[in-house]
């Protein structure tokens, strides 16, 4: 097309306007197209369908992602059940006529599993006889919002007539076990009618002001003894207004991504530092008060970010994960322990059993679930997987299906995927995977199994695992890669030569690291995000081989993180998406239905001269979707030759994510520093010319059917 044609002038004007909107010099938009910048999109030769699960989410409870984050319970250690640290999160009030004693006891507890509670004794009546809960780096509360406070109380000897409850701003920091001080009172009430037996009390608190760091203060009314357990402060404003729901703004950020799947609960917490610390899904369902907390595998992993108060309450458990998947329209992808603790820690392994090695299946003896089992064999882990599928999909007449129904979800969750092991490697994993896989397939042949290729994207262990898993006809092989931004740009063709038949690929964990893997100095920079966008064109071009992909980790609390970078950051009140989040969202909200082949002019490969591209057809909307990454400080005109397109429309839509500064990041104060901008552009023929902004990721939606 001649550059002086009306169409070219209109396209150039669009590019100039876009550069202006992005704050870019207009002169940068005037570079002429070259042969290498001509992309032929073969609309009439469609490739593989884009899997509905192509772009999804990986959730792990790291960086306070669950307790203190997505799960909005404001009280830390509400049931005093954390072994060896029963008062973690709690402090006695300092000064005045305080408590005579406060201790954790097990005398006639609420239940066999929730068998610890706090016993408070005051020698004399006074306003300072009590405890303060600090929350998760404070408690975020909003003015006028409603918070349900509940507690189990039992009166002992003496004349305690009630419990005073106050929500207040945190006072000055102190040290030692008796370090709680008070700030401005935000809400308060008094509970009366105490009895000599356990009784649950519930009241609604409505703060008079917003505070990011509030605390909960409980004091005795009168002298004597009072037993306290299961202390909860929970916002009424939860997603879908559920009683044990999730934090609204964080769920909305996930739903806005239109994710194809949700992988949970991890990640390395699936494995645990030891097998006794592994995640056991059966301990995460049922009555909230009976879910026993467990040390979080990440609490002491990094000396530079030690978090000794990091525990899992399991208020967000497998039932809630399945509900969340349903809420955001994502396929649930639970990952289960394969009988191996984290190989970066203890490498503890459950022994193989004769029944397991002989081909465990529906006719093999079922290993009974035992919460206190000290030496589980592989059979225990296999049975847990079979029971999980029954919990998700079984009828009300089944043992585990009945438990789901009792929790309030009569319909099956329609589980289609299950992961065997998280990130294990070596022959020890493969010898456990095989009987595990055979047992699941024998009873549930339609379940797709996700297997592990290990923590590295190459090397001898990776190669051997991949070869063996393909021999075993694994449906999905999970590959992980954390690397510098340039690795992602250089490996855009990673899957070009993978087999088109047999096992499919799940890019289960990936993120560009601005400094180094595991460095506390990593940033969610635009350089990292645009490099991931470039890499993802290679995933989309190979949709016949790659059917799932997810960035990791998902969430991080700004005051309580262990690992960087992360997709979404939050504090106790606010949250924001990183540039990486917007890259993921632009892919997941523009997936298309069918892959379209893209060829560069002059025989250039994808990524040559730092121009990256992929294309799909969206048969639902009748559009051609083109994704373009210009990793260059200069604007770049491109020509898109749409071969065989039909019923071409006149106006296209562009979504552009760009920044002149590759080190740019988003923050709580500047959440939109790097964020997408929407534009429209004119389409007058099947040769569409468009000018890409410098350092940009652009999604074009062109009306045209194939």
Looking at this protein, list some descriptive labels.
Immunoglobulin-like; signal; TIM Barrel; globular; eight-stranded parallel β-sheet; glycoprotein; alpha/beta; 3 domains
Strand-helix topology:
Elements: H1 6-21, E1 38-42, E2 57-58, E3 90-92, E4 101-105, E5 117-122, E6 130-133, E7 139-141, E8 147-158, E9 162-170, E10 182-191, E11 199-205, E12 211-221, E13 224-235, H2 248-255, E14 261-264, E15 294-295, E16 311-312, H3 318-327, E17 331-336, H4 354-357, H5 378-393, H6 399-406, E18 417-420, H7 426-443, E19 448-452, H8 460-471, E20 476-483, H9 485-490, E21 504-512, H10 526-541, E22 546-551, E23 555-557, E24 568-570, E25 575-577, H11 579-588, E26 594-596, E27 598-600, E28 611-618, E29 623-630, E30 636-643, E31 651-658, E32 677-682, E33 687-692, E34 696-703
Parallel strand pairs: 1-30, 2-14, 14-17, 17-18, 18-19, 19-20, 20-21, 21-22, 23-24
Antiparallel strand pairs: 1-27, 3-6, 4-5, 5-13, 6-12, 7-12, 8-11, 8-13, 9-10, 9-12, 15-16, 24-25, 26-28, 28-29, 29-34, 30-33, 31-32, 31-34
Region (Disordered): 352-371
Keywords: Glycoprotein, Hydrolase, Signal
Protein name: non-reducing end alpha-L-arabinofuranosidase
């Amino acid at each position: 097309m001649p550059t002086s044609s009306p169409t070219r002038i209109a396209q150039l004007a669009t590019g100039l306007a876009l550069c202006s909107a992005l704050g870019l010099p207009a002169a940068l938009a005037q570079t002429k197209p070259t042969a290498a910048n001509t992309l032929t999109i073969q609309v009439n030769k469609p490739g593989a369908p884009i899997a509905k699960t192509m772009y999804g989410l990986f959730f792990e409870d790291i960086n306070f992602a669950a307790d203190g984050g997505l799960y909005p319970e404001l009280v830390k250690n509400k049931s005093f059940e954390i072994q060896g640290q029963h008062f973690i999160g709690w402090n006695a009030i300092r000064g005045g006529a305080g408590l005579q004693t406060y201790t954790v006891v097990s005398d006639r507890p609420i239940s066999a599993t929730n068998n610890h509670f706090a016993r408070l004794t005051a020698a004399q009546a006074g306003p300072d006889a009590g405890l303060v809960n600090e929350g998760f780096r404070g408690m975020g509360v909003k003015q006028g919002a409603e918070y349900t406070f509940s507690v189990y109380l039992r009166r002992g000897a003496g004349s305690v007539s009630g419990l005073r409850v106050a929500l207040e701003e945190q006072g000055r920091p102190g040290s030692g076990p008796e370090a709680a001080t008070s700030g401005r009172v935000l809400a308060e009430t008094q509970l009366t009618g105490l009895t000599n037996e356990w009784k649950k009390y519930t009241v609604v608190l409505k703060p008079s002001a917003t505070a990011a760091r509030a605390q909960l203060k409980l004091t005795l009314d009168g002298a004597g003894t009072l037993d306290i357990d299961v202390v909860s402060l929970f916002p009424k404003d939860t997603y879908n207004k559920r009683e044990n729901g999730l934090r609204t703004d964080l769920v909305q950020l996930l739903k806005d991504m239109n994710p194809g799947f949700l992988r949970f609960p991890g990640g390395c917490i699936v494995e645990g530092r030891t097998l006794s610390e592994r995640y056991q899904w059966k301990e995460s369902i049922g009555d909230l008060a009976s879910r026993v907390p467990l040390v979080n595998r990440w609490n002491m992993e990094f000396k530079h970010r030690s978090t000794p108060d990091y525990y899992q309450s399991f208020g967000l458990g497998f039932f809630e994960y399945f509900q969340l998947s349903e809420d955001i329209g994502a396929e649930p992808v639970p990952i289960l322990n394969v009988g191996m603790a984290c190989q970066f820690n203890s490498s503890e392994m459950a022994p193989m059993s004769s029944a397991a090695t002989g081909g465990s299946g529906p006719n093999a003896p079922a290993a009974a679930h035992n919460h206190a089992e000290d030496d589980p064999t592989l059979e225990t882990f296999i049975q847990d997987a079979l029971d999980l599928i029954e919990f998700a999909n079984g009828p009300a007449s089944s043992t585990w299906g009945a438990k789901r129904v009792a929790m309030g979800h009569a319909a099956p969750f329609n589980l289609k995927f299950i992961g065997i092991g998280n990130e294990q490697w070596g022959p020890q994993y493969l010898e456990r995977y095989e009987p595990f896989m055979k047992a699941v397939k024998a009873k549930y042949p339609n379940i797709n199994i996700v297997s592990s290729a290990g923590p590295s994207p190459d090397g001898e262990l990776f190669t051997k695992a991949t070869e063996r898993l393909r021999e075993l006809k694994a449906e999905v092989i999970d590959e992980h890669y954390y690397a510098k931004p340039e690795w992602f740009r250089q490996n855009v063709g990673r899957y070009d030569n993978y087999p088109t038949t047999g096992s499919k690929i799940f890019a289960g964990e990936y993120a560009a690291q601005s400094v180094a893997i595991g460095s506390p100095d990593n940033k969610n920079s635009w350089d990292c995000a645009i490099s991931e966008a470039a890499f993802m064109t290679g995933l989309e071009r190979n949709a016949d081989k790659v059917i799932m992909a997810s960035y990791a980790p998902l969430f991080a609390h700004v005051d309580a993180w262990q690992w960087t970078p992360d997709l979404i950051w939050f504090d106790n009140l606010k949250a924001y998406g990183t540039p990486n989040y917007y890259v993921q969202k632009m892919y997941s909200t523009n997936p298309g239905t069918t892959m379209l082949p893209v060829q560069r002019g002059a025989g250039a490969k994808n990524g040559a001269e730092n121009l990256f591209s992929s294309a799909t057809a969206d048969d639902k909307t009748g559009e051609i979707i083109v994704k373009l990454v210009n990793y260059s400080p200069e604007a770049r005109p491109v020509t898109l030759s749409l071969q065989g397109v039909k019923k071409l429309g006149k106006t296209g839509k562009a979504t552009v994510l760009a920044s002149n500064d590759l080190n740019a990041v988003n923050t709580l104060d500047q959440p939109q520093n790097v964020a997408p901008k929407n534009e429209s552009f004119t389409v007058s023929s099947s040769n569409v010319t468009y000018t890409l902004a410098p350092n940009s990721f652009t999604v074009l939606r062109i009306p045209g059917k194939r």
